[in-house]
Every structure is written in C-alpha cells, then in structure tokens.
Amino acid sequence: MENGNIITIARHTYSRALLLKVELEAQGIVCFLTNIDDPNQDVEIRIMESDTTAALDIIESHEKLSGIDKEISIKTLRSVRRILVPVDFSPLSAKAANYALELSKTLKADIRLVNVWYSNANEPFAFNEMYSYHPDFEILAKEQQTDAQQRIEQMCNELNYRIKNEKLRGINVDFDLIRGTAVEGILSVIEDYQPGLIVMGTHGKKRSASSFIGSTTAQLIQNSKVPVLTIPLGLDTDHFRLPRNVMYATNFDSSDSASIHKLIAFSRPFNVKIYCVHVHLTESMQLDEGRMMKLRNHLKEEYGEYEVECGLIESEDLLSGIQDFIHEKEIDVISLTSHKRNLLSKLIQPSITKKILFQSEIPMLVFKA
Questions:
Q1: What is the value of pTM for the model shown?
Q2: Do the domain assignments include residue 351?
Q3: pLDDT digits (tens, 9 = 90+) for 344-353
Q4: Do 209 and 250 have their domain in common?
C-alpha cells in the first residue's frame, strides 16, 4: 500500500491521464496526477484505495479493444504460415531451427533461415579469428559470404531432409543471406518476408557477454512488431513435445487484451491451456484482485470456449514467483507483452534479463504492444 490508502490505479500519457482524471472526478472519485513534469515517464493516476472498484469500471470503458483492432490482430496471426529463424550456425541456432520445424508440423508454416554474414568492426561476432587480421578487407568479405552461403545451404538441406524423411506436407524451407548489421539486416528481412513469428535462440545460463544470439534477441524483442519466440540452450528438443500449458504474465497493461487475443489465436492449433497470471508484489492486493477480476470477466465473455485460467501469484520476488508457478503447472511456454514500462521493461533490465530471458529453460513468446 502506498502512502497509507492512496494507490496508483493507472499509468497513461498526460493527455489521456487528464481525460480520465476529469471523468473520475465527475463520478465523485477524488484523484490526482504524478510525474506530469517528466516527459520520459507515463503520468500516474492516483486514487483512494476504497474507490478501486468504481474507478476500474470507469477506466475499463476507455480501454476496451475495438472491433477494428481485433480484426487486425486476427489477420496478423493468420500470417503465422511463415516463420523466420535468424541463425549464426551455432548449435543453438540449429536447435531453434529444428524447434521451428516442429511447430510447422502443426501450423503448416514455411520456414526461412536468415544469416547476417557481414558486419562492421563494431560487431565483432561477424569476424571469426581466422579473418581478424586479413590484409584485404574485400577478400575478407568475399570469404565470409562464401562460408555463410555454404553453411546456410547445409542447414537448409538438413531441414528439408527431415521434411522428406518424415513425409511432412505443406512445409517449405528456404534461406536468405544479408550483408549488414545484425538487427538491421534481420529487420529488413522481416519487412520483405512478412513472417508471423520469429524463432531464435538464447544462450541461457551459458550465455557469454559477447553472444550474438543473446544480444540480437533482446534487440529484436524491442524493435520487431512480429512476435518473437526465444528458444533457450537448455531446452531438450530431442524429446520435443508440443506446448500444452502456456503462462501469460500480465502487469494489467492496456494492451493485454490484444496480446491475449493474439496468443489464443496463435496457440489454438495446439489445444493449450492458458494461465493468465500476475505476480503480486507491492501494489494493493485489493487493486490487483479488482484488476484480475476485470480481466477474468473479459476473457470469459470473449473466449469462454477456450481453457483460460486467471489468478494472482503472491510473492516477494518476481523471479521466484514465476519460477515456482512454472514448476507447479508444468508450463511449456512463457508469454508476455513488450511495452514501455511494463513487465518486459523490468525483464530488460540487465539483472532481471540475465535471470529470466537468458536463464529460462523453457521458450518465451513475446508480443509487441
């Protein structure tokens, strides 16, 4: 509880926060705004805790997802007939490519491998030791391109061999080579290929500070509008099983409704059970219970035919609360929304990222708000 019985009910841009303040006060709810002088922070709308239920009703009316937004999200998820897999030819990227193929068996999706084979001196991952002191820069670039071409063709052939050997239908694997910086190169392929999903690896507990896959994954999560599915090094893909239990971690962001809609559309072919959870830390329990009830009612109304369970996790530590829940419910995939100053913002902080994004032993699916 903050400042006695005064709590933060919502965070918005200044203009939207001001509109909500006017609406709340018109309904007899006393409120005030904070952070109004900081352009880098959302404005906080603060109220008396006793007004929580009434205030949530008013705020909800401002945040309902429109029919047009739903139609757009449906069209977006239908594009998961194309999966993009960035690779650096490490065993981890091979693991991610094979995981993508397993998903494709159900989704009937095509796969495109992409490798950024050349970079500038600021991205040393593109240069292996044998090239480090090559006297001719263009010869170096040509050798890099030839080596990348051979490796990506081999990886593509291995996947196509599996498709042929396992008699899979409706799946095609091809590749793309890009000369440029890692993230910009991959984003350019995303723009051209229009995939519905990006699958790539994270080095997990064995991640090194200079890891290409780790740093590039984090940057793509921040910059790509396409959902990113991260595959950790410790995942056992030799005994692959389709996702059965998915955890959506909510921080009661206004984009939750759209993201959960996308998650349900994406996971529909796998017949999963979705757990929509929030880790209760320092906010008012009454506030969190009210928010979760609103979300539960919305999901029941919109997706009553799907197996979705909502609840709060009481924990003094974000990481421990999530890990305990994953173990108890045998979660196969963690899912959340990438948005400024929400749960992912906390995960992107180096100390938390290292523990969750780069140490998780199960895949994590991130949607862009």
A1: 0.73
A2: no
A3: 444 444 344 3
A4: no
